[in-house]
Automatic annotation (TrEMBL):
Record-linked Pfam families: Lectin_C
Record protein name field: Vitelline m7 coat lysin
Sequence ranges assigned to domain C-type lectin in this UniProt record: 12-124
Keyword Disulfide bond applies: yes
Keywords: Disulfide bond, Lectin
Family matches, as Gene3D superfamilies: Mannose-Binding Protein A, subunit A
Entry keyword Cell division: no
Taxonomy of the source species: Eukaryota, Metazoa, Spiralia, Lophotrochozoa, Mollusca
Length: 127
């Protein structure tokens, strides 16, 4: 993996720096610039890895953008990725507050958020 990225499960993961907050589309563009894409969990254990990793990172934000979006009333992980299966939602979520998905760092659960909100983000690419 490139410098600043973390290796696990044959993928490389990048967690944006404290001051690097973006809207959902800004986070997508930032990941693409670095040769990756916003995080999407291919395996259940990736979600647990992400939770553990985010809890080690000393960033005060509680949410990090993922690749999840709502299209046509359904949530998905973006073009070319498997559809949602058993998503790990935060209690009371989704509540209709947004059409983009963030992961809550303390639990690893998903939360729908307005896409314009500025959060840190997690990128993913094949190792």
């Amino acid at each position: 993996c490139k410098s600043g990225w973390r290796y696990a499960f044959n993928f490389c993961y990048y967690i944006s720096a404290f001051a690097d907050i973006q809207s959902h589309s800004g986070a997508q563009a930032a990941c693409k610039t670095q040769g990756g894409e916003l995080f999407w969990p291919q395996f259940v254990y990736e979600s647990f890895f992400l939770k553990k990793t985010l809890n080690k990172v000393k960033i005060s934000t509680h949410f990090f953008w993922t690749n999840g979006e709502k299209h046509g009333g359904k949530w998905d992980w973006g073009t070319g990725h498997p559809a949602f299966s058993n998503p790990r939602w935060s209690p009371g979520q989704p509540d209709g507050s947004g059409t983009c998905l963030a992961v809550y760092s303390h639990t690893g659960f998903l939360d729908d958020q307005p896409c314009e909100t500025q959060y840190n983000y997690v990128c993913k690419t094949k190792a």
